[in-house]
Design goal:
- By secondary structure, the protein is mainly α.
- It has one domain.
- Helices cover 25% and strands 0% of the residues.
- The protein has two helices and no strands.
- The longest helix has 9 residues.
- It starts with 16 loop residues before the first helix and ends in a 23-residue tail after the last helix.
């Protein structure tokens, strides 16, 4: 696996290269917060559940 660093948080990412590219060179959680989290509620804090069943804040 290549040295992969998350474009959002700067931490190492342990995904296959294909998945790393799919998530825009981020962790899946970071991708969610960057692109999906506040689509229906602009400005929603990352500490709040956005209603998406896959939301890391709702777990």
């Amino acid at each position: 696996m290549n040295d992969q660093t998350c474009q959002r948080c700067g931490e190492p990412v342990e995904l296959d290269q294909e998945d790393f590219e799919l998530f825009e060179r981020m962790h899946p959680e970071c991708f969610h917060y960057a692109f999906e989290h506040d689509l229906t509620k602009p400005g929603l804090s990352v500490d709040e559940d956005c209603g998406d069943p896959a939301c890391p804040s709702g777990a």
